[in-house]
Amino acid sequence: MKKIIGIDIGGTKVAFGLLDDQNNLVDQLELRSNPSDSQLMYDVVVTGIKKILADNQLQEEAVAFGIGVPGIVDVEQGVAVFQNNLPWAEFPLVAELKNDFPAVTHISLDNDVSCAAKAEWQALGLGETDSMVFLTISTGIASPVIIGGKAVKGEGVAGEIGLMLVWHSLTKSLERLEEIASGPAIAKFGQQLYQNPKMTTKEVFECYDRHGEQAREIIDSAVFALAQAIYGIACLIDPTKIVLGGSVIMKNPSMLERLKTELGKMAIPVHAHIVDALVLSGYDNNAGLVGAAINAIN
Q1: How far is Cα 128 from Cα 26, in angstroms, rounded to an integer?
Q2: Alpha-carbon span 18 to 8, nearest angstrom
Q3: Residue 27, C-beta contacts closer than 8 angstroms, at least 6 positions apart
Q4: Does position 1 have pLDDT exceeding 70, yes or no?
Q5: CATH numbers and ranges of domains, the chain
Q6: Could you read off the pLDDT of 128-156 as tens digits, one per residue?
Q7: Running DSSP on this structure, what letter comes out for residue 298?
Q8: Half-sphere exposure in the Cβ direction for 213 (13 Å, CA)
Q9: Global confidence as pTM
Q10: What are the Cα distances from residue 118, in Å, to 68, 233, 276?
Q11: What's residue 140's pLDDT?
């Protein structure tokens, strides 16, 4: 059986992982992205693949590639259609890799968060009667939906819950979820309220942990916005599990209990079970990497 190289491509870093036939990571590598230029970004991917192959003494014909990229992806054609944090537009990633690695017979490409959702699905042992939403809160916010093991694709932007309009308790207006509760949004409001243009998301949470009033307002508004979106998911899909991942919540896991509390206030009795359906990711921020590799098998 071929070994799988999973590749999770982002605007900050590209993560590479070699999986064995039990889907265990046996080697990992991270390289810094170079989003300044299309070719330079692609060269980072090629460099990482070559290093994984060399370090594990593998020939091209012994591996398959599973790749996840953000944004809109043409799965059938293997094209990275649009990413707001990468210099690729209609970039034929699979075709380019086939040119550079002609002995690799199978290369799959999908949206990175959809890949991560597949890894979470498998880790939870869900089956054909189950449904799951993977809500990732990071640089952006997305929520791919899997029903009976199949991802809901829609017309191309299904699961982009970050675009959903919710009430922002801080500004007293309707705003997109991503502009309230993503990492950059939390940092932006911290910079404004603390009058510190260099304040980071991490520093906002540190102020929050020290019971800073302004940080409390920022985090409370983010939690309230997320709870609104999650309750919308519950009303529409009523999934078996809603898995929370992404750097914002994985680095601040206490948000889970706050979300459950807020969600409990919103839910009518028939929806009360959705509070217990809310769980943290079982992966240490590498679900996308594992899921991309799993995608290459299926």
Answers
A1: 30
A2: 12
A3: 17, 18, 52, 55, 56
A4: no
A5: 3-105 (3.30.420.40), 127-280 (3.30.420.40)
A6: 999 999 999 988 899 999 999 988 888 76
A7: -
A8: 0
A9: 0.85
A10: 11, 18, 21
A11: 86
